[in-house]
Design a protein that fits this description.
With 111 residues, chain A is of the alpha+beta class. Chain A contains four helices and three strands; from the N terminus they run αβααββα. Chain A has a single domain, classed as Orthogonal Bundle (Arc Repressor Mutant, subunit A), CATH 1.10.10. The longest helix of chain A has 27 residues. The two termini of chain A are 22 Å apart. With 207 residues, chain B is mostly helical. In chain B, strands 2-1-3 form a three-stranded antiparallel sheet. Classes of the chains: A alpha+beta (111), B mainly alpha (207).
Chain lengths: 111, 207
């Protein structure tokens, strides 16, 4: 398998987790999510990926949204986790931690 | 609104108007929300940019990231058509959604092809059942010298002595049942695939 292909797949698979984890701390709006992902994790996605994804997460009841008037004068659509979303993200994190620990151990032992 | 110059204002309005056009399949409320959200996003991008003097450049950059209105709208619309189509059993929506998906990615193309073919097969069985009373001689389950020859409509001569029709009018219920069962199995499969591809939470719930 090509490295770039593998990286793309890994990113795609973890994008939802990344977004849900960001919303665990507090409510955020689209541009904010985009910028944090880009700066902190190097996950570069476009608006055409993020906003439909948020829409999907909302439709499935994992996130809720509200419009808030911002200081800059533009209304912002803020997203936060629903009750179901909160439950799911904890389960995802737990799985992720176990998974990455196991994998790290595997890598260590393989040296 | 930021102090967009006249040219920028026009450019942005044009973009949003086109976006509204390509988002037409969506209900008005959803459409307006998508447009309002991206409008705020673009304006904020412009406000962030350092060249406050000439915000046309900043606007163009922001729009470039979005892609053409039809590109930006693509996932929203495909997602909507497939999900709502399945939810409400609207064949026309699913059909349009599949067409869009099929035009977009290779995986989508093969899935769409598969489902169109499968629905076509299901329809053919139903048609065979309907055609039997109209062309009783030409429609049937034909054997030639004891070996399978044709199930359905035969265009040529059917009074060949080597050829036998073995089902008679039983072909009507049999073809109809196969056709309808085929239809339901295809639809069940289609729902599964769409949930897998275009759903997130539901995908988890099923496991």
């Amino acid at each position: 398998m090509e490295l770039s292909k593998w990286i793309a797949q890994t990113r795609k698979g973890t994008l939802e987790l990344g977004i849900l984890v960001l919303l665990r701390a507090r409510k955020r709006y689209g541009l904010e999510i985009l910028e944090i992902l880009e700066k902190n994790s190097g996950i570069v996605i476009t608006e055409g990926t993020l906003y439909p994804l948020m829409n999907r997460l909302k439709r499935e009841g994992l996130v809720i949204s509200e419009w808030v008037e911002s200081v800059s004068g533009h209304p912002r659509k803020y997203y936060s986790l629903s009750k179901e979303g909160k439950k799911l993200v904890e389960q995802m994190i737990e799985y992720w931690n176990t998974f990455s620990n196991t994998l790290s151990r595997l890598i260590e032992e393989g040296r | 609104m930021e102090e967009l110059n006249v040219e920028s204002k026009k450019l942005l309005e044009e973009y949003l108007q086109k976006l509204g056009g390509v988002l037409k399949p969506l209900p008005e409320e959803e459409r307006d929300e998508i447009i309002l959200e991206i409008k705020g996003h673009i304006q904020e991008r412009i406000a962030q940019s350092s060249q406050a003097e000439d915000n046309t450049e900043a606007l163009k950059n922001a729009l470039l990231r979005l892609g053409k209105p039809e590109e930006y709208a693509f996932e929203f619309v495909t997602d909507y058509l497939l999900n709502k189509g399945i939810e409400r059993n609207k064949a026309w929506m699913i059909f349009k959604g599949l067409l869009r998906w099929g035009c977009n990615t290779l995986v989508g193309f093969f899935y769409s092809l598969f489902f169109f073919a499968s629905y076509l097969i299901s329809a053919s069985f139903v048609i065979v059942g309907i055609m039997k009373p109209i062309f009783p001689e030409k429609v049937g389950f034909f054997l030639r010298n004891g070996r399978f020859e044709n199930f359905g409509l035969i265009m040529g001569v059917t009074d060949n002595p080597n050829m036998q029709e073995v089902l008679g009018y039983w072909i009507i219920p049999i073809a109809l049942v196969i056709g309808i069962a085929w239809f339901f199995v295809t639809t069940w499969l289609l729902k599964k695939v769409i949930r897998n591809r275009f759903g997130f939470w539901k995908r988890y719930q099923e496991k």
